[in-house]
Amino acid sequence: MAKKSLGQHFLYNPQIIRRIVESARLEPGDLVVEIGPGYGTMTKIIAEKVAKVIAIELDEELYKKIQKELSIYENINVVYGDALEYPFNKLPPFKVVANIPYYITTPIIFRLLEIKSEKGEFLHNLKSITISIQKEVAERIIAKPGGKDYGILSIMVQYYAKPSFEFIIPREAFRPIPKVDSAVIQMQILEKPAVNVLNEKRFFKIIRTAFSQRRKMLSNSLKALYENPGQLLLNAGIDPHRRPETLTIEEFARLANL
User: Where in the chain is the domain with CATH 3.40.50.150?
Assistant: First the structure.
């Protein structure tokens, strides 16, 4: 029985599940973290292909059930807990494969992309993320400048990774049936960020401030940060009358570096 409080929608179709796993481009030596294994169907398929699987389950009843059922697999470790609090920074190189609840999609992505060492340095141990998520969120992740889908999430992901839209999962494939379709997206983590920024904190602060009033011109929305944003934009070679959704990630980086 799915629990509404945990946003559970279970995927039972083995063909779709195998297609998700194929999209992850797994290799025999891989360590895979699965977030929200549910009844363990995808966990078993992943375990057939890789060296080790860590399955993190927040539902205590499901955890107990699959821990017992999957105990015959020597390369599966079922963990009871919240993935948002899991110490990913202590893992060796790993890949993430998951069918996660809609309500934690963005927090999970941000949590994974911002993995840091104890010294505060960004780690490169995360190699890829392959997840089924709400279709409209997937469209936002891959969006390019100029469209309504382009925003903070687009830039955040594309700064750290190269995302690709794999395929759509119709809502009817889940039980209970959600209100919207899902999509599988694969994010290949870059060896270094897509653009060079001198101060990442400032870079993302400018982006968040700009998109907090996305219908306003940049010269107006950035007044919250700078006394004369128009001149700063001109110095960066950016027309102050432009709106934030028209700027490329390179232009945001140039602005931040000034």
Answer: 4-189
Which of these, 41, 46, 52, lies nearest to 26 by C-alpha position?
A: 46
pLDDT > 90? residue 176: no
User: Across the strands, what pairs with 40?
Assistant: none
CATH fold of 4-189 reads: Rossmann fold (3.40.50)
* DSSP β-bridge partners for residue 116: 122
Q: In Å, how far are 22, 56, 159, 200 from 187, measured between CA atoms?
A: 14, 20, 11, 20
**51-102 tens-digit pLDDT:** 999 999 998 998 999 999 999 999 999 999 999 999 999 999 999 999 888 8
Which residues make up the CATH 1.10.8.100 domain(s) of the chain? 200-257
141-166 average pLDDT score: 95
* Residue that is written with structure tokens 């039980």 in the block: 175
CATH number of 200-257: 1.10.8.100
Outline where DSSP puts E strands in the chain. Answer: 10-11, 31-35, 52-57, 76-80, 94-99, 126-134, 161-169, 174-175, 182-189
Residues 26 and 44: their CA atoms lie apart, in Å, by 14
Q: What confidence tens digit (pLDDT) does each residue in 219-230 have?
A: 999 999 988 999
Three-state secondary-structure class, residue 191: coil
